[in-house]
Each structure stands twice: as C-alpha cells, then as structure tokens.
Write a structure and sequence with these properties.
The complex is a heterodimer.
Chain A: H1 3-8, H2 10-44, H3 49-61, H4 64-75, H5 82-106, H6 110-118, H7 123-154, H8 166-174, H9 178-206
Helix pairs in contact in A: 2-5, 2-7, 3-5, 4-5, 5-7, 6-7, 7-9, 8-9
Chain B: H1 2-10, H2 21-53, H3 57-68, H4 72-83, H5 87-111, H6 115-123, H7 128-161, H8 171-179, H9 183-211, H10 214-217
Classes of the chains: A mainly alpha, B mainly alpha.
C-alpha cells in the first residue's frame, strides 16, 4: 500500500468519489419517481402489469456495458456523455423498483384500504397518502438492493471513460498499481455501506409507526 | 444508424474467422458456461447444507449481501493483477461473482420449505438424505433456477467487461471498438451481448420450468427479492 500516493492524489480521489456519488445517486432518485408512477398505474390498471413486468425483465437482462453503448442511439448523445450512464442506470432502477412498488401496494391490508374508501378518500389521494406510506418498508427494501447495485455498476462506465471510482481500476490496471485499485474498491464498498445505512435510517424516520417488531 | 447496425451484423464476412461473431459468441458462452459450472459445484452443496441444517445462515446472508456491493470491474482487474493475465484468472473472478446468487437462492429455497412438509416427510420414515433430495430440493427448485438465471446474467455481463483485461468473447468488439473510435463495432458487440443474455435467460427459464415438478408449477411464483441485481 502506497499511502503517500493516496495523500498526494486526495483531490483526484475526492473528485472521482463525488462523480461516483451523482452517477449512482441521480438514477436512484429518478428511477424511484418513474417506478412510483408506473407502479401506481399498474396497481390501478391491472391489465398493464404483466406487459410492464415483461418489459422490465428484458431491460434487466441487458448487460450494463451493452446498455451504456446503446444509449447514444436512443438519446442522440456522444459515446462519452455521462448522460448515457445516468439514463441507463435509471432504466435498471425503474425496472427493478416497479415490481417492488406494486408488491408493496398489494401488501396493504384490505381493511386499511376499505377504511380509507369508507372515509371518502378519492382513489389517487388514498394511494398517495394511505397506501404508499404503508408500502414504504417494502419499497425501501427494493431501494436498498438497487442502490447498492447502482454503486457497483457505475464502475463499468470507466471502460467508456466515465466511471467515477471505476476510473481508478482502469488507471491502476494500466500502471499495474495495486494501491489505486484497492482505493477504488474500498471506497466503492464504503459508499455502498454508507448509502445502505442512510436508507435504513431514512426508513425509520419515515415510518415511525413501524418501529416495534420491524425486521426491515 | 439502426440500419447501419443491421447491415453490420448481417454481413456474412463478419461472422467468419477467428475474430468473427461466431467465434466470439462461442468464446463468450464458454466463459459463462465454465464459470457457471464451477460456481454450481461450490454453491449448490453449500446452499443445500446451510438450508437443510440452518447452520451458518447469518454468515451466508452477510457474505451474499457484501458481495452485492463488489464492483465487478474492480474484482476482475484485482484478480488478474494478482494472478496474471490469461483465461484461468478471469474464470476465477467470474466464479467469485457467480457463487453468491446461487448460494443465496439455494439456501433461501431449501430453508423456506414449509416445515410441516419436512416433518411429515420425517414422520413417513424418510432419512435426512431423502428429505433433502426428495422433498426440500424439488420444492426449492424454482428459487434455485432463479438464482442460476441471476448468476448467468451476471456472468454474461462480467465476461463482457473482462475483455478489458485481454480475453476473447463479445466484449472484444466493445473494448477494441472504443480504443479505435469504431462506434459501429462497439454497437454490434453490445447488441450481440444483449441478445445472448436474453436468449440464455429464456433457455434457462424454459429448462427451469420443465424441471420443476408439475405439481409445484402452479405455485411457481418467485418473490421479487429472489432475482438479485446483476451488473
């Protein structure tokens, strides 16, 4: 381990860490929004769920590097545009979370739904203010999986020149320099652990009624 | 642009030779297949053991969760730098990434079998071995197959990435195309890899469907958590 290199290149490493953060973070937020909209639609209009699920399955089957490369065709961007990575990861995120959102909404106890209907809640308001909050633990469980996956997938972008901490892997490989690769690996793992812990905390905050006997 | 990819991919000359599509597809399937075999040999017995005895579940859960946050490119590069260029190190890296999804699905499937059913089997005089092979494994099979599918997708993706450290396979077109600014070559590689992943997933889904006992097929629902995220 070359500690001197780490100190000398703290700026570079910090910059890549920040890049990694937004390359993986924006897709999580954007993908969650898309998945919530699609999930609520699929929950309401049941017939749309099987085709949506099939489409999500196909998206999820495509290897990340392949999806990154196909993006310029769809978006009209340059191969080196970070937008390719962000949009591709947003697609993965929404593909995985749609199912989670629908599962979460389906798991709302019927009595709760009926009580809301009986109180005169219109459909959309009932879903947003009653059913979605109850579905939070299920949705956060999916969000944790997809966040960790995004953080590890961003590195693949380094093969196309935009990969956050992944660029430490490619640079380290070119120079046969272990320290650089290890720094990339450790920071990437730490980032995943930190993001996961943050989501668990956020869920506790968002579902104060769920604190007793919660396993999520 | 899409037409360009079409003509590129349908050009017969590009399908032949040692750098042709056909060779690269076979190489890719070879990497995926051999890593999958080794991963199965490691993960299946271990998963069955953990699922049946319910010992070491905590360790397994933590190991599987930790493995999800491993960046596959970093793992491939690290293993290759430690053990040298060539096929074997890449296969080691691929196997490392394929074990967790299979292990996870196997022990989750076996330990998820209804305990009433297991006790009934024991009550009928089945030995532990018979309980495992004739009751728990058949009932866990849908989940085991979904784990194998996850692992396969992970392998197809990572074998592509591994072209960066100089092996064959379809990733060659992506890496070499990027190095020479040949976007059509990259795109052809990307399309072929995506198609390969979709075809392999379909084949495994079919094999999985028909290998599951007909009596269990009606209940063949895989929970969303079972198909873990792949790179």
């Amino acid at each position: 381990m070359d500690w001197g290199w780490i100190v000398d290149n703290a700026d570079l490493i910090g910059g890549l860490l920040v890049e990694h953060l937004w390359l993986s973070g924006i897709p999580v937020v954007a993908g969650l929004v898309v998945a919530l909209v699609l999930g609520v639609l699929a929950h309401t209009y049941r017939w749309s769920y099987p085709p949506l699920l099939a489409l999500a399955g196909v998206v999820y089957t495509i290897p990340s590097l392949a999806l990154f490369i196909v993006m310029p065709l769809v978006l009209g961007t340059d191969v080196l545009d970070p937008l390719n990575i962000v949009v591709a990861l947003t697609l993965y995120t929404s593909a995985l979370l749609v199912r989670t959102v629908v599962d979460g909404l389906d798991a709302v106890p019927p009595a709760v739904r009926q009580a809301a209907v009986g109180m005169g809640y219109p459909a959309l308001r009932r879903i947003v203010t009653v059913e979605l909050p109850i579905a939070i633990p299920v949705i956060v469980a999916g969000l944790r999986v997809v966040t960790v996956a995004n953080i590890s997938m961003v590195s693949v972008g380094a093969l196309l020149g935009i990969g956050g901490l992944g660029e430490l892997f490619t640079a380290g490989f070119q120079l046969r320099f272990f320290t650089e690769i290890l720094v990339g690996l450790v920071l990437s793992l730490l980032l995943a652990v930190a993001a996961d812990a943050l989501l668990v905390l956020a869920q506790r905050r968002a579902t104060p009624w769920d604190r007793l006997g919660s396993t999520a | 642009m899409i037409d360009d990819v079409g003509t590129y991919l349908t050009d017969p000359a590009r399908w032949q030779g040692s750098r042709g599509f056909l060779t690269r597809i076979v190489e890719h399937v070879e990497y995926v297949g051999s890593a999958l075999l080794v991963a199965l040999v490691i993960a299946l017995p271990l998963g069955l053991l953990i699922g049946h005895t319910r010992k070491g579940v905590g360790v397994a859960v933590n190991a599987v969760n930790a493995s999800r946050s491993l960046p596959s490119l970093g793992v491939v590069i690290l293993v290759v730098l430690v053990s040298g260029l060539g096929r074997a190190p890449v296969l080691v890296a691929l196997t490392i990434l394929a074990v967790p999804p299979i292990l996870n699905a196997t022990y989750a499937g076996v330990s998820g079998v209804d305990q009433g059913t297991v006790r009934a089997a024991r009550g009928m005089g089945m030995t532990e071995r018979q309980v495992l092979w004739q009751v728990e494994l058949p009932m866990a099979l849908p989940l085991v197959w979904s784990g194998i599918r996850s692992a396969t997708l992970q392998l197809v993706a990572t074998a592509t990435i591994a072209a960066y450290v100089a092996i064959g396979g379809l990733g060659r077109y992506v890496i070499d195309g990027f190095a020479t600014f040949a976007f059509d070559e990259m795109l052809a590689g990307a399309v072929l890899v995506a198609l390969l992943a979709i075809v392999l997933d379909l084949v495994l889904a079919l094999v999985g469907h028909f290998s599951v006992s007909p009596g269990l097929r009606a209940a063949n629902r895989t929970p969303s958590s079972s198909r873990s995220a792949t790179a």
